[in-house]
Amino acid sequence: MSKKNSILVADDVKLFQLFIKQTLASKDYGLTFVETGKQVIDMVMKKDFDLLILDVELPDMSGLEVLRSIRKLTEEMQSVVQLKELPVIMVTAYPREEIRREAERLGVVKFMSKPLKGKELRKIVKDVLKGHYQKSGRRRLILCVDSEPRVQRFYRGTLSEENLDVITASNGVEALEMVEFSDPDIIVTELNLPEMDGVEFIKILKESNKSVPVIVVSSINEKEGKQKIENLSVKKYLSKPFRLEELKKSIKEILGEEVNE
């Protein structure tokens, strides 16, 4: 007797749950339904599922927050036990481009808008469970920290590329919140910042064991600036004015290192 494929469905709308039950009714599938993000995380930690169908809008947290938590927990547990990466189909009744991009960055296999078509969903689920799928292109996220709005606009306009997204912060406090919430792949920061300067920001980042590579792009004199960040494991120091191509090259090299590690 062949083993059933276990599918976890996270959605608090009863009509959608009924649609999934009818669409995926099969002796080959075992369906488990939950309605909150916390329940998703608890279930994933307790049992191996072959697929997660995850709604973006859940009562207690967003689907994106759930997915970040799952990915983080999986990474943390890899040193203890080898875990397969859970394929995720994300669904939403309110599709927005920034949500789709973030979902793709987190490696969903499919991002779908409600109402779903039963025939299309059945095919996608069948393909995913057979391993016939390709994850959405891994988008990388850059957090750029600078108090000048024009510099923030410059970063967003020049660093955003096909597989790179840019978010910005004005000071160290704001940047720490973004690191916690958005989990960037790399940080580009000025040292001369209001409220919490760049040096303090990098120190706290390091003390919190956040292994996000940092590039400093600063108006502070290079010799003085490098003294301030000594022993803080900064990957690159660039003085303003800087050459954009040098910054882009450094970002690509560092992200390449992160991928290959």
Structure, briefly:
It is built from ten helices and ten strands.
How does this structure look, described?
By secondary structure, the chain is α/β, with parallel strands linked by helices. The chain folds into two domains: 5-129, Rossmann fold (3-Layer(aba) Sandwich); 140-260, Rossmann fold. Helix content is 43%, strand content 20%. The protein has helices at residues 14-23, 37-46, 63-77, 97-105, 118-129, 149-159, 172-182, 198-207, 222-228, 244-260, and strands at 5-10, 29-34, 51-55, 88-92, 110-113, 140-145, 164-169, 186-189, 214-218, 236-239. The radius of gyration is 21 Å and the shape is elongated. The two termini are 41 Å apart.
